[in-house]
Amino acid sequence: MYTLEEMKNMREMYGFSYKEISEKSGLPISTVQKVFGGLINRPRKSTLEKMSVAFVEYDKKTSYVVEEERYCGVLSEESAKYDSGYYDSGYDFGDKKNGEFTYNDYLNFRLPEGKRVEIIDGYVYDMSSPSQIHQIIVGDLYSEISKFIEKNKGDCFVGMAPFDIRLAAGNDDKTVVQPDVFVKCKSERKNKISEGGPDLVIEVLSPSTRKTDLTIKMNKYCEYGVREYVVVDYKNEKVIRYDFEDNCLIDMFDFDDKIPILIYGGKLKIDFGKIKEHIKKMKDIWEDFE
């Protein structure tokens, strides 16, 4: 059972309406309104238990938001020492220890053909081969953003993995990432595509990158000037948008929504319903599409 304060926080964060809570909990909407409005000073335990039902299923699906990082903080190097499962796999990374690698070392890694890694705070992280669904989503996102920029005669650059972004170039240069999709617009402080944080980053979650995308990379993107961070969780058909310019405001969307992109003032809306239909079409055609 959640406390009333926890439910208030989740309602505010995810935009639940009183009607939704009423329908999921089985409580009258008037009771829900009174509890959240503070008109009932000490709600009964049975009432809170019923209200919790409205949140628990949703919370399980989005536990990566509730239980992981909910802020734009900066992880220390110690906090970044998650086991990548790759550094000790027998590949040749030279003489340096994990945590000491720089961009120059990264360029000289001797890896099998097709294998990709990132380094974050000097630590090596594996990038497993993406699934077909992952590639459909990345390709559709790249296409939609490219069309919008071209239609509006914009000069921002849209890129997709594999493309190296040196977030800390000119500083410690120990972080090199390959965002699934990114947009970078030129400014006085941003005059190189491959150096510094993009304006928009979109990461499509996969089992091997989920933890990194939702913690370490999210914090790095915030630290190095990314304005908007969008995380696509196709397994649960959810999209999380972090507005780093507005106190890391979090918005949650479904795969049936048209999601406004903030760096363009909401004029660009990504129709995830179309992406969902594209995935369904491919599943109907190919037996091994996953």
UniProtKB/TrEMBL annotation:
Keywords: Endonuclease, Hydrolase, Nuclease. The keyword Hydrolase applies. Coiled coil: none annotated. Residues 7-61 form the HTH cro/C1-type domain. PROSITE patterns: HTH_CROC1 (PS50943). The keyword Nuclease applies. CDD domains: DUF820-like, HTH_XRE. One of its GO terms (molecular function) is endonuclease activity. InterPro entries: Cro/C1-type_HTH (IPR001387), Nuclease_put_TT1808 (IPR012296), Restrct_endonuc-II-like (IPR011335), Uma2 (IPR008538). Transmembrane segments: none annotated. This is Endonuclease, Uma2 family (Restriction endonuclease fold).
